[in-house]
Amino acid sequence: MSAAFAIMALTVPAMAQNVAPPGATACSGCHDPSTPGAVFPPLHGYPSGEIVAAMQDFRTGQRPATVMDRIAKGFTDEETQAIASWLSQQP
Amino acid sequence: MLQVLTRRMLLKTAAVGAAAAAFSRRTAAQASPKVVVVGGGFGGATCARELKQKGLAVTLVEANAVYTACPFSNAVLAGLRPIEAQQLKLDAVEKGGIDIIQKKATGVDPQSRRIALEDGSSLDYDRLVLSPGVDIRFNALRGYDEAAATVMPHAWKAGEQTTLLRRQLEAMDDGGTFVMAAPANPFRCPPGPYERASLVAHYLKTHKPRSKLLILDAKDSFSKQRLFQAAWQDLYPGMIEWVSLSSGGKVIEVDAKAKTLVTDFGRHKGDVVNVIPPQRAGEIAQVAGVADRTGWCPIDPVTFESRLQPNIHVIGDASIAGGMPKSAFSANAQGKVCAAAVASLLRGEAPAEPKLINTCYSLVAPDYGISVAGVYTPRNGLLADVEGAGGTSPVNAPPSFRAQEAIYAEAWFQTITREVYG
Lengths: 91, 422
Fold this sequence. Notes:
Chain A: One of its GO terms (molecular function) is metal ion binding. Chain A: This is Cytochrome C. The structure holds two protein chains of two kinds. By secondary structure, chain A is mostly helical. Chain A has a single domain (2-88), classed as Cytochrome Bc1 Complex, Chain D, domain 2 (Orthogonal Bundle). Chain A contains four helices and no strands. Chain A is globular. Chain B is of the alpha/beta class. Chain B folds into two domains: 2-63 and 103-135 and 279-350, FAD/NAD(P)-binding domain; 137-275, FAD/NAD(P)-binding domain. Chain B is 34% helix and 26% strand. Chain B contains eleven helices and 25 strands. In chain B, helix 2 (42-53) runs parallel beside helix 10 (328-346), helix 2 (42-53) packs across helix 11 and helix 7 runs parallel beside helix 8 (225-235). The radius of gyration of chain B is 22 Å and the shape is globular. Chain B starts with a helix and ends with a helix. The model of chain B is unreliable at 1-11 and 22-30 (pLDDT under 50). Classes of the chains: A mainly alpha, B alpha/beta. Chains A and B meet through helix 1 and helix 3 of A and helix 1, helix 10, strand 22, strand 23 and helix 11 of B.
């Protein structure tokens, strides 16, 4: 029974259900999804490629940051990709 | 290890099955499963809104009409910010279709899944989320009772206590001493006492420069310690004295009449005395039987469901969230994850393994911010730090970096309050 759940969770992509992938909902704690001109860039509807590139650069230190370097290091490429795709599809 | 995991998975499966059964039993009688959230702070209000977005019927029980936010309340204390900037209402939450009951929750019966309210009425739930914050453990520190708190405020629950301590600070003569007792871990907002010391020092340096600040601590180390101590040396040289546990800093008794804190090694009289006392999960968590002997609430790191009572979830400061500190950011992140898990469980699905983030800013001065961040995931039954991620701001950074973090601190407060209450 529990194995069945595990398989379901693995085979049904989170995005297909529009369920936020792990970590994605925490972003809006700082990044106001929709207010233009906010200090932190709004991420809802943001191009996913740009989010992925920014996160990679934060992780390697190529892009200067105050806190995003420390946060980006907590996510794998796959996780970052899933979060970026989800954010880009949010209204 | 394997056995533990198997048992956990079995329990989880059993919980899912029970939820599915409860769901189908209730769907016959009512349109949708009922979720009750107790506590309208950052965790509870976030969770209620997320649950509603997922199409669930949500009732939010909160006794107070106005919620006074703790983050940035140290700036109120230092005269940098009006208390009104901290006061938040649930009007927008209510407009979003959440049933708000402005009463105190007084009892929980996990068996019949019903909570009791102060007026004798009751509410049924399929799933209950408790986000009660902290309660002060009066008398845990000898002599520190509610009466003593009117003389030596804790100001650790924002509101009247904050403005009381502010008035005392304003009334203090130049050359006076501000004495603070800092508690042992765990407690709400680990960097909070040291941010407070910093901003009080900023006020004193500006208005009463001959004054001193003494911190008597029940710990040997604290959050963002290197950053705070370096900043104190730069900005407030000779003004702040920190006495660690091993140097005899632990306060064991307070004498409110004499405005004096007592340690094993001596008595410290202050002109203004701030006691940050031991704390525990808010009262309703104790009543519901979800708090353990430590006074805090053990939870499953995937669902935030209590390890002690089924169908009750605990989020925010009240929960034992492993590496996650007791902060508003944590409570907000947990509220969203908990809502997703509750929705999954009510659909009879297994909740996904979450990942959570915390970011905590502290102000050392109005234009000097520092931060600690972390990324967390369930490991061995707890929320553990993802290795290689997180940490504090760099020890060596130019003033522009500190100024930027001070701006981010304020921006974070604006964003989170808009998301939760706007």
